């Protein structure tokens, strides 16, 4: 029988999560690992989203790794090419390339109960690993709604995260479907180039001014020569966002002041009262992600733009039809309709104890312990798992906290000589019961909107209802009592015991 390659750890994905995991593993002295990536380069989100205007909406000095400061960020909110280049540099500086296998989509990961390790089938062969780190990203699989007749459309169709740069939008009649985070960056970037832009809006977003500016040479010099100045800047950006959390989570009524700024922003950008009314949301600000833009409203008010305030229902030949009966002939349809978030495709590919898939396990909603581990899926650690998303701060903070947890997870395996750890169902239940209790008062649940934060049953399984400092504390150390130990049949301890408490 052919022997499969075996690794201590197999990481899936090369976005911030997967690359961060690689750096952390090396720092912990783990070198026996592989990083599997379905694409042919690193970057995740920042490789796939190359649409015009793509940039982060959390300041770059915070939206980057704490262990890899970048004094050269060109802007307060840097664009996609710079973030992608940053991740390429991180890959090289931290020696990750030899560990990465590109074009290696993980088609299946199956827990082998006998051997007590994972069997992975990838597009480039099979391998086994003691521990799997899933960093496949919450926003990596585009979602295009099922629209009647779309397949008959004779023009160009693509999703914002799979931009077709070979297609020239110059002088075209374009429909932008959706008004979320990507769409509000795309609209002002393409409006001056296209003949006519039809923005198909189901629910308007709240949009705040974007405090963007170029980082000047003196600042860059200072950050390069005096690292403490970079740290101080990052610290301040972090602190401001930590203070905002209370309003989102405990006192949504405090969001009213922010709402006034957003209303004034609409008034400044749009003169026409009818258009102002169309783009003014009827839910509390913060319920959906607050978006940042200085040129979105002026682009909507431009003579070649039309906002259709109804969802897309049908495509008839080259005509799009919306729920209010509006019909417009277009040459291209761009979908800014988000991603598979609460139904992530990797869920169908990961099989835990008894062959059960993660998707089956999560049929009533995603749930994990400390956003990281799942009962019945031993030695599977997620980066940006359920309830680790943020409404207002940098996801890199959450990723780094999850990496602390991963490091302690691996240290616990070493210390106890266990083959695997399996989260106790009661630990997962009580962690999530507390999360959902805290969720009740949040603006995401009470603000009167339907958002991608909520799953089909209306439960918020995506966001973290607290500060990033709280999550950091919650993931600093693995709590042994929350796990059962699976001993190896033959290896390490020589024990054939099925399970035991983890020794603290
Ligand atoms: C346009 C856009 C803008 C954003 N802006 C911000 C922002 O300003 N601030 C913020 O905090 N967050 C932002 N986010 C959220 C962003 O997704 C996270 O901040 C972060 O980049 C996620 O990193 P990740 O590594 O978890 O996932 P990703 O970056 O999505 O990486 C996942 C990787 O896994 C790979 N993969 C997936 N499935 C498989 C498989 N089966 N086999 C092998 N490989 C696989 C993918 O190809 C990808 O490379 C933004 C997201 C988008 C889409």
From TrEMBL:
Lineage top rank: taxon: Bacteria
Q: Species lineage, top-down?
A: Bacteria, Bacillati, Actinomycetota, Actinomycetes, Kitasatosporales
Indicate whether Ribosomal protein appears among the record's keywords: no
Record key words, sorted: FAD, Flavoprotein, Oxidoreductase
What Pfam families does its record include? FMO-like
Per its record, how is this protein called by name? NAD(P)/FAD-dependent oxidoreductase
State the InterPro entries in the record.
FAD-bind_Monooxygenase_sf, FAD/NAD-bd_sf, Flavin_mOase-like
Organism per entry: Streptantibioticus parmotrematis
Q: Which PANTHER family match?
A: FAD_NAD(P)-BINDING DOMAIN-CONTAINING PROTEIN-RELATED, L-ORNITHINE N(5)-MONOOXYGENASE-RELATED
SUPFAM superfamilies reported in the protein's UniProt record: FAD/NAD(P)-binding domain (SSF51905)
UniProt key word Oxidoreductase: yes
**Family recorded in the similarity comment:** Belongs to the FAD-binding monooxygenase family.
